[in-house]
Amino acid sequence: MGDVTALAEEQLSALAAIVGADRVLDGPAGAEQYGRDWTRAHVPAPCAVVLPGSIAEVQSVVRYARRAGLAIVPSGGRTGLSAGAVAARGELVLVLDRLNGIDDFSPVDRTVRCGAGVVTAELQAYAEAKGLFYPVDFASAGSSQVGGNVATNAGGIKVIRHGMTRDWVVGVKLVTGTGELLDLNRGLIKNNAGYDLRHLVIGSEGTLGVIVEVTVSLADPPGDLAVMVLGVPDLGAIMDVLHCARGRLELHAFEFFSEEALARVVEHQELQRPFDTAAPFYALLEFAQPDEAALEAAMAVFEETVEQGWVLDGCVSQSVAQAQSLWRLREDISETISRWTPYKNDISTRVSDVPGFLAEVDAVVSEHYPDFQIIWFGHIGDGNVHLNVLKPDELPMDEFQARCGEVSRWVFEIVQRHGGSVSAEHGVGLLKKEYLSYSRSETEIELMRGIKRVFDPDGIMNPGKIFDL
């Protein structure tokens, strides 16, 4: 725990006058709870934590912070993996938990308005109760918040079918760095009246302002879904399976993971292997199964891929419970490997480039650090893969981090050659900031800085994240 920079008593009193005395925290407990996300590379050291209960209170806090020269870190569910919600330099943490209302549901428009603090799973449950579906989904849905999802343009497991968070946002309310409230797009489907500032805000990681409210669109429920897990001999075969399945199945997810990932999940989560045959890699396909014809199509895909040598073995779920069990083989990977303090990279390239891309990365890391174990998994159907390097037990953390810094630079050089992204879905935050130039030109970065200055002229909104001014 770092030294929490103390505010003067009159500053704490001014904040308490806005949000209430019990909603201002200035001790180490509040800093530890609210001053960091799931990353542990930076020690939290905010000056204070405030929990406003309305948009008006958020505006007042921002205006006061601007006058007092205080930097602000917006805080949602704090499930980020790029240190985007870390307050390590005496910032004021502005927590959105209390902005958690869901209202203004329109069955005609099929939209609903959410406070930024609404937990993703609560929105999903609300949509289900209305006979509809909110398709943005990921392992942290039970704790991540809608505002944070929008701020990072969260992706997850359904992107191949339903797209990113961006594709479901039809309105955003943002409090800028001057305390002004912007109401962007207002739920419209068609709106070509000038620049769509909504899409600048989505993915801006709190650097342009505080997202306080989001209007999202909802979809028809997906109906019955089945899951198939296939063992494949190499990554090229996974691409062949994807091409074959896309032509015959209504895919909702297409994930992959390595044998090393599966072995650890099976051992530590007490799960069963999907089948006896071990394979270097596995593909997990989720597909619509409205009738027997869909299952027959899935079996045809299996048979053809086996005949072609693309698949070694496989299984398909016969019940909802079995589908959930098969999903755990993929979704429990992050939790399982967390005990080895993995060094994570969230990278992407064009789907067709993934096999060669992964082979290059694997070869570079294996050559330089043969004692490091690599765990691969990810959303391979949309070109997004997660590289996890496990820390050897005997290696000190500082040395491991330093050596992984070298790994990242080699990996990002490969990303750059493939025209990919150093951050596919987790954001840039602090962890990826020095590598931004591998995916964005200097001209683009300078334009980003200029946009930030317009929204946040004093540079108080999540400073130091994504880039430095």
From TrEMBL:
The lineage of its organism: Bacteria, Pseudomonadati, Pseudomonadota, Gammaproteobacteria, Cellvibrionales. This is D-2-hydroxyglutarate dehydrogenase. Gene3D superfamilies: 3.30.465.10, 3.30.70.2190, 3.30.70.2740, Uridine Diphospho-n-acetylenolpyruvylglucosamine Reductase, domain 2, Vanillyl-alcohol Oxidase, Chain A, domain 4. The keyword Coiled coil does not apply. One of its GO terms (biological process) is respiratory electron transport chain. GO terms for molecular function: FAD binding; oxidoreductase activity. It comes from the Bacteria. Its cofactor is FAD. It comes from Pseudohaliea rubra DSM 19751. SUPFAM superfamilies: FAD-binding/transporter-associated domain-like, FAD-linked oxidases, C-terminal domain. Residues 42-221 form the FAD-binding PCMH-type domain. Belongs to the FAD-binding oxidoreductase/transferase type 4 family. InterPro entries: FAD-bd_oxidored_4_C, FAD-bd_PCMH, FAD-bd_PCMH-like_sf, FAD-bd_PCMH_sub1, FAD-bd_PCMH_sub2, FAD-linked_Oxase-like_C, FAD-oxidored/transferase_4, Oxid_FAD_bind_N. The keyword Electron transport does not apply.
